[in-house]
Amino acid sequence: MKQVNRFLADIFKEHRKELITILIIATFGSLFAAIIPYIYGRLFDFALIPQTSLNILISLIVIWFILSIISNYTSNKTGLMGEILGAKISLEAEANAYAHFFSLPVPFHKKKQKGEVLRKLSRGAWTLQNMIEVVSGTFPQFLMLIFSVIAMLLIQWQLALILIFAFIIYFLITIKNIDPILKIQEEEHKIFEKQYGKVYDKLYNVFLVKNFAMEDDEKKRLFNSFVTKLVSSLEKTSTKWARLSIMQDIIYSVSFVAVLGTAIFFLRLGELTPGEFIMFFGYINLAFGPFRSLSRIYRLFKRSSVAIKRFIKLKRIVPESMKHGNKILQSVKGEITFENVSFEYLKNKEVLKNINLKIKQGETVALVGKSGVGKTTFSELIIGYYQPKKGRILLDGVDISKLKLKWLRNQIAIVPQDLNLFNDTLINNLKYANPNATSEDIIRAAQAAFAHDFIKKFPKGYKTLVGEDGIKLSMGQRQRIAITMAFLKNPKILILDEPTAALDAESEKNVQKGINELIEGKTTIIIAHRFSTVRNADKIVVLDSGEITEMGNHDELIRKKGLYYKLYTLQKGLN
Ligand SMILES: Nc1ncnc2c1ncn2[C@@H]1O[C@H](COP(=O)(O)OP(=O)(O)OP(=O)(O)O)[C@@H](O)[C@H]1O
Ligand SMILES: [Mg+2]
Question: 370: CA distance to ligand 2 center in Å?
Answer without folding.
Answer: 10
